[in-house]
Description:
Blueprint: E1 7-13, E2 17-23, E3 29-36, E4 48-49, H1 51-69, E5 76-83, E6 88-92, E7 102-103, H2 111-121, H3 127-130, H4 139-149, H5 153-159, E8 162-166, H6 167-175, H7 178-181, E9 185-187, H8 188-191, H9 206-212, E10 221-223, E11 226-231, E12 241-247, H10 248-255, E13 264-268, E14 272-279, E15 289-294, E16 302-309, H11 313-321, H12 332-336, E17 346-348, E18 366-368, H13 376-402, E19 408-412, H14 419-429, E20 432-436, H15 441-453, H16 460-466, E21 469-473, H17 479-495
Parallel strand pairs: 1-5, 5-12, 9-10, 13-19, 19-20
Antiparallel strand pairs: 1-2, 2-3, 4-7, 6-8, 11-12, 13-14, 14-16, 15-16, 17-18, 20-21
Amino acid sequence: MPQRAGYIAALDQGTTSTRFMVFDRRGRVVSMAQREHEQIFPSPGWVEHDPMEIIRRTLEVIEEAAQQRGLRSNDIACIGITNQRETTVLWNRRTGVPVYNALVWQDTRVADEVARLAREGGQDRFREKTGLPLTTYFSALKIAWILDHVKDARAAAERGDLLFGNIDSYLLWNLTGGAESGVHITDVTNASRTQLMNIRTLEWESEMLAAFNIPRGILPEIRSSSEFYGTLSHTSLAGVPIAGILGDQQAALVGQTCFQPGQVKNTYGTGCFMLMNTDGMKRSNHGLLTTVGYKFGDRPACYALEGSVAITGALVQWIRDNLGLIERSEHIEWVAQSVNDNGGVYFVPAFSGLYAPYWKDNARGVIVGLTRFANKGHIARSVLEATAFQTRDVLEAMEADAGLPLAQLRTDGGMVANELLMQFQADILDRTVIRPAMRETTALGAAYAAGLACGYYNGIDDLVQNWEIDRTWLPRMEESERNRLYGQWKKAVARSFDWID
């Protein structure tokens, strides 16, 4: 596809908000608009989004970002999509109306089914085919829940009236024409998070469809992460090619230009997600996930090991919205700085169970070590430290799987602006922590994937040249103190286990 214009863009649909960002060739932001959407909690452990609201916010941010700079379709070479992974939508192919709210990746309502399947064949019964353990995290059981619990949904699916997609597929179908001409496609990175794709063949796996009782006809076509899919049919940018799709964490891997085996990035968002480029597929023996990192056009897929932590930035939002300890999320840093240490307080945010490397669906959040000495500063500090401790849990598992020590950690996402957190992260890891000049690498990675497909970039060397360091943190904590703090954290984590019978 020939290069068309001076800019590239990305639609970044995340767990709490939707953004549209326009970039120049150096990966610098030209224009950006962002809108939050409602978080719906119908029952304990249930997390939903309104898919129709997400579409409305998507159209709004595209239009707003275009208007900021007076951009038209001939100014944008192509658009990439990146999205919250595993979040599951089923909709009517003739009307475009979802049959139920989207089930968000954090949702735990299928825990009983996870337990049943694990009893029958073990938690790792599908890992050889899919790279994934049995857990509430992935899409397959969410699809099955909607089909079995929403009136007439399974019958409609069997008739061919329903379509399934994670948010990438739902957005692409709507943005390319919906019921009239919408393209029903997903990329290999998102497909690898459904627990329905064979991680080797990169095709839907019949055994998995049978195990979860899911009709093949509702599934999107699996394509690469970087190719032409269709053209935008809405807003003032109608006609711009959509040419890249990456799940959000894989997009950050690309945005951080981690194209060499052994390179690692950690994204601090609603959750925390560490990915290591392994090039070829590598099975984890220490609680990590094997996932597709990216696939550019006809080139072979690149694989990654991933450690997923469910709650990090979401914990800051929780103490803001549910407890009222802070007025704005960014205030947590100065509240935490009001004390010299955590005062013995540890917060394990197992709100949706524990993900990597524990995979304990029946764990729940705990605050331990409370005394009358503790105040909101200690709780704020324990919130930030929980993110760093959970990252160390994942990093140690990743080093064990890879068989080599990691010298540095590339970071990105909203929480990397918190310098207290970044210093504590370096301290508790005993590793160098690097923040790039472009912190919002998720959107940038999706734009890069599209730019490669449309000829805006000649190859990945162009992308590597764009990556620049903003700041580096070196560890400065004494080893004895590091070991003491992490030992207490591990005790706190153990207290969260098996809370749900």
